[in-house]
Amino acid sequence: MDKKHIIDEIIRTAKENNGTPLGAQRFASETGIKRSDWLWKYWTKWGDAVTEAGFKPNKPKSAYDENVLIEHLISLIREIKKFPVQADFRMKSHNTKGFPCYKSFRRLGEKHEMAQKTMLYCKDKPEFQDAIEICKGVLPSSEKEEREVDSEEAESQFGYVYLMKSGRYYKIGRSDCVEKRKYEIGIKLPEELKIIHKIKTDDPPGIEAYWHKRFEDKRKGGEWFDLSSSDIKAFRRRKFM
């Protein structure tokens, strides 16, 4: 991993983020460039890398750890016996000292993403089975899903070819609902599964086959591949195929 490539990726991802450079964790998730690829090799801290790329480092913010937010969310779910809406978060925060504000929970994503992360956190904790069952009710495939589904996403003729990462390897597959598929696969894996990118398409089998063939020499088994940062960059360029 050379220094120029990392700087180029900092610049590219910052442009895609309205001119603001990404934090080290999100940068790793977006590009596949790990902290170990640059720490003590080129820079002693992420702010130095951002500065060399021509940006001002982001000001550090005090924020709740994601697991802490999930633990508070589980507590609220079990207390009110349903998946909380915005009003529930605000009321709990107002009445309970130390409970995070609603804005903090938004870091976990949309409602279905909050539910997915909560289920992954609880998967090895049988005492939280009640919370898991409540979270299942807000997954995109559930009849109880309350969020409005974008009309384009609802068109049955379209699907997605996705790129996910667990550990050092990447999975290329297809699904009508990538978030649901992430949960189904991730719950069986020892390491966290992350969605890197998804390509909308009217030919999921054909486009999946295209990417499998393109990276055939990097296949590790099944739909898992050992991809380079340039491979990931090529996949992420495509929004629709």
Describe, in plain words, how this protein is organized in 3D.
- The chain has 241 residues and is α+β, with helices and mostly antiparallel strands.
- The chain folds into three domains: 50 residues; 71 residues, no CATH class; 78 residues.
- Helix content is 44%, strand content 12%.
- The chain has eleven helices and five strands.
- It has a five-stranded antiparallel beta sheet, sandwiched between helices.
- A hairpin with a 2-residue loop joins strand 1 and strand 2.
- Helix 7 runs antiparallel to helix 8 and helix 7 runs parallel beside helix 9.
- The longest helix is centred in the N-terminal third of the chain and has 15 residues.
- The radius of gyration is 20 Å and the shape is globular.
- The two termini are 29 Å apart.
- About 6% of the residues have low confidence.
**Globular, elongated, flat, extended or rod-shaped: what is the shape?**
globular
Mean pLDDT: 84
Q: Supply Rg.
A: 20 Å
How much helix is in the residues? 40-55%
Overall tally of domains: 3
* Number of beta-strand segments: 5
Q: Mind summarizing the main beta sheet? A: 5 strands, antiparallel
Strand order of the largest sheet: 3-1-2-5-4
In short:
The chain is an alpha+beta fold and 241 residues long.
State the main characteristics:
single chain, 241 residues, alpha+beta, 3 domains, 11 helices, 5 strands
Strand and helix layout:
Layout: H1 3-16, H2 24-31, H3 46-52, H4 66-80, H5 86-95, H6 102-105, H7 111-122, H8 129-136, E1 159-166, E2 169-175, H9 178-186, E3 193-201, H10 204-214, E4 219-221, E5 224-225, H11 229-236
Antiparallel strand pairs: 1-2, 1-3, 2-5, 4-5
Helix pairs in contact: 4-7, 7-8, 7-9
